[in-house]
Amino acid sequence: MAYLGGKATGSQHILKVLNHPVFNEMPYIEPFCGYCHVLRRVINKSSYTASDSNELLIILLQHIQKSTEHESIDAQEYKALAANPSSDPLKAAYAAFTYSYNGKFFAGYVGDKTRNYPAERKRYYNRLHDNPVFASSDIKIGPYSMYKPSNIHAPSIIYCDPPYEDTEGYRNTFNSSEFWNWARRTTKAGNYVFVSEYKAPEDFICIVQKTKRQSVAGRGATRKREEVLFVHESLLKDERIMEVIQSVGDKYPCSGTEDSSKSTRRKTLRRKK
User: Fold this and answer.
1) Phi-psi domain of 34 (left: phi exceeds 0; alpha: psi -120 through 50; beta: other)
2) Is 172 a member of any domain?
3) How many domains does the chain have?
4) Which end of the chain is less congested by CB atoms within 10 angstroms, N or C?
5) Quick one: 162 and 256 in the same domain?
6) What whole-number distance in Å separates Cα of residue 80 and Cα of residue 59?
7) Domain check: are 126 and 233 in the same one?
């Protein structure tokens, strides 16, 4: 199921933060839900809302919530659905992701490979269907910007895994500057906004960090990246955030990011003092 930036593995540092007891019984929102690898493992929240801007992905996830019946797509159908997804949106959703190379949007048909990738993905869909958090989630289509102070019950936990800046392989151009401005406004409105990225503007601070390997353009090669969970620096005044840093930060210390000018966790704590 993995795709560029996916959270199928290597997300323990994120879950340790999101599942910290200080955030129990708060609403949980995930505006870039992808294949729901993080959502399905978040626990003890009062409600769960997940969304994505890709309409076909949401059609697929909403179908998985309701059913374990799956579509089968051959190579000829794949080509036709890629050219005209509106002809059959559910089949197009299966073509775009289940039968697509590396699970990426219409990245090439994989139903004719020796390894049965579609069957593996459908088994994951069945596990997702049975997951109580996923089953109870409000899953909807829309951009992250649809979440505004007027329609968020603060304080909410908002986990963001946006397209990583300066990385390849994403369908649409993503305006990172607009996103960070949204994260500032949403934090200021009283919410806990966590952003998973490799780098961030100077007013966003690392709270946990983990080295992970990332596939490089499907060539079988991997590279190490330092994946960081950021919050806005204004949250360093928040008792819950400081408790999370104290209890989780030692296991996943912020030792520096790809931008060498970024603060380490020790600098973060000095600012708090």
Assistant:
1) left
2) yes
3) 2
4) C
5) yes
6) 18
7) no
User: In this structure, is residue 210 part of a structural domain?
Assistant: yes
Which residues lie below 8 Å from residue 78, measured CB to CB, with a gap of 6+? Answer: 95, 99, 109, 111
User: pLDDT tens, position by position, for the chain (273 residues)?
Assistant: 334 346 666 789 999 999 999 999 999 999 999 999 999 999 999 999 999 999 999 999 999 999 999 999 999 999 999 999 999 999 999 999 999 998 889 999 998 778 899 999 999 999 999 999 999 999 999 999 999 999 999 999 999 999 876 555 444 578 999 999 999 999 999 999 999 998 999 999 999 998 876 655 555 556 677 889 999 999 999 999 999 999 998 889 997 645 433 444 444 444 444
Is there a domain that residue 7 lies in? Answer: no
- Domain, as residue range, for 121: 61-132
